[in-house]
User: Fold these one by one.
Assistant:
Number 1:
Amino acid sequence: MMQVSTSHFYDSTTSLMQQLSKQADTLNTQIATTKKLSKPSDDVVAYQRLTTIKQANADDASYTSNISLASSLLQQSDTTLGNVETQLQRAAELAVQANSGTLNAGDRTAIATELQGIRDQLVSLANTKDARGQPLFAAATGDSAVTQAADGSVSFTGSGTPAGIPIGDGITVQPTESAARVFGGVPVAGGGTTDMFAALNSMIGALASNDVAGISAGGDGVQAALTQIGTMRASLGARAARVDLQQASVKDAATAREVDRSALEDTDVTAAITDLQKTMTVLQATQASFTKLSSLSLFNYLK
């Protein structure tokens, strides 16, 4: 007849009940917190993966903020250049009128006055402030993009290339342009370049002196400036499209990471409740059996 050690019975049964009780506590905690993991030792590999996911989420939070800023600046740049385009189109219309041989002194004075207003409006647009309160076209340096002298002449203040904004790992976008690139570098007939302000001032001066050639040259400069603005807006549009694509990519990556995170960390509450019920059933049966067996008088004689 096989002998049963009393101490072994107590030890093995107590150990089983402790394991079941611990498992029930763990399941209760997972259900209450909806999290499967409460400390790294619960699952070292899963915790390491979660750490990587959380870091990627933190990085993308910064990129998302930068994407929003870049998109806003690109939109503002395009809107501002749209306003520049409107002013230049009116200047081009005035250039055509100014070339008419039927103008009298009053007509020329009226056109010159309107052109001065257009020039001043372009100066204001060039010095537009962005959402951060910084000059939109001030390049890498400068508190303003352009400076206008008392005689109406305009010079470029900022220099360098506007800083790019990081919108992804190794991906940056330049959200605007320098005033020198937007308003300057306009090609002229015979070679060389001018700027929009100089072209307008040339027309204004030519109207005052009835210089037909000067009026024509100023008009050509305005037309070239319109072409340049169109090219610049197309460039900004291409960058905006790239920002939109990156924004979609960041969102897709975040969605994929959330699926991974949930699989690693979130409790399947329905399954956990089922497991808890099974565990409690086994625990209660074990406790009942232990109580019953330990109370038998014969038990005292089992060795």
Number 2:
Amino acid sequence: MKFVSVRDLRGKSADIWRELPDEREMVITSNGRPVAILAAVNESNLEESLAAFRRARAIDAVASLQRRSVTAGTDELTADEIATEIAAVREARSR
């Protein structure tokens, strides 16, 4: 996978667009840190590519929630404790 700086993306965009179909994806960096992924798509795979990207983001969000749950100690709540928490939140909302 190729890494491209934001500066290169601005200054050499024609070269990058030309290389993208062969590379398939490139990581865009700012100050040496990844900030974006540039992926080659076309009309025939656009929807499939977007769906895959959205699935990956959803999986990452769930993993993040799970890590926060472990950190907060809420990963071991029982089903009854979860139901009680949900009921308390619903009650507070209805006021």
Number 3:
Amino acid sequence: MSLTRIINKLFQPRLKELERYDREAGLLQQQVLARLVKAASDTEYGRQHLFAAVRGYEDFVRSTPLNTYEELKGCIDRMRHGERDILWPGKVKWYAQSSGTTNDKSKFIPVSNDGLQDIHYRGGQDAVTYYLHNNPKSRLFDGKALILGGSHSPNYNLPHSLVGDLSAILIENINPLANLVRVPKKKTALISDFEVKRERIAQETLHQNITNISGVPSWMLSVLTRVMELSGKEYLQEVWPRLEVFFHGGVAFTPYRKQYEKLITSPDMHYMETYNASEGFFGLQNDPADASMMLMVDYDVFYEFIPMDEFGKENPSVVPLWGVEKGKNYAIVISTSCGLWRYILGDTVSFTSTNPYKFVITGRTKHFINAFGEELIVDNAEKGLAYACSRTGAVVSEYTAAPVFMDNQAKCRHQWLIEFAKMPDNMELFEHLLDKRLQELNSDYEAKRYKNITLQPLEIVCAREGLFNEWLKMKGKLGGQHKVPRLSNSREHIDLLLKLNKA
């Protein structure tokens, strides 16, 4: 009997618990809220907001304001300096460093031990639970897992307190038994220089029996490319014949799928999307035939949602999970056992089902283009590019887009900077197809494009190979969970990229 078949038995009780999602999601969420509020009632934040008197969701809303990172930053900084019982009981030693806000280069998200165990690691365990259920012939544990991680560094020189990529925190604290089935070595996984790490990972894993890989698609692809260079093989299954699944997250997989399918041609390869962020682990693709993800409702995360047509208002409507509607675009609000209370996450989602609660990520509250009332979101961009690629044979590696507010002929348009892994057969056709598909997907964009009155046809600039990685390296963000901003209302990023593209 294979080791996987034996280990699979350990996941069966959890599978039974996950079946409650279909009928008891609202109840599970109410239990989560009660558990979180009770645990934090004697913290400084809990006392200030009368958590001891909270008896349900309505009480919680009345006593607790919506928060951005800026509102919680002062408390978090005190926690980073070693103060106890501020946002969550005890002392929090770990902080996930995430992309910055308007005022700061980086955010530092608290990762309590409760959050580590009851949010982040539970997500990884449930990914395996669903995968083994969907693939009863799997040999997942009969080989090694290649898991990409970032790096960490001391936090204000406090003993045993560190900041870094969430992936580095997870690797640092992982159960020692997991290291028996994980590569690369911890020392290699935590190297801060991504180019050095990439080479070492490729060397260490080249002759291993890799059955599964986990990480951000862009950085994993870079590692796999180096593995192929070292091996001299044409396809990855020639290097790792038992590779069966890629657990991916961090960025949308759509721009990378064609590159992976070109690299891994085995019909037995599987892809499973996960929604894990510095702030928590929120969703899993539980059905290979359905691109939407299951919202994980019994972790230490309580969810609320702001309709995007009210986002940014002084007093927007906010609904709990049991108040959402299918097909509507929402900004996510979370309360967690890491001490984030009614925290506006920055991601947007749309529910495809409410029995159970399944969703797709539609973009970011700040990553969109709405310079002319077009309200173009990342989900539109991903689907538009996928359509244009399918019709022209193109493969996109990376991209970003921003508005041209007015050129010397008083014309406005969207400018796309795209790095192609494979150029389209006809660039003009690609531009036309992308523009046409965006109009079909987004009525606001279509209205602004009507007769070229407000918006001219979009423009595509081809990026030279490696441009986006060079830009990330300049910013000190090569590797880890860092990613290229897809859409922006400003030209801050694209102007620097265009300058680099000419260098």
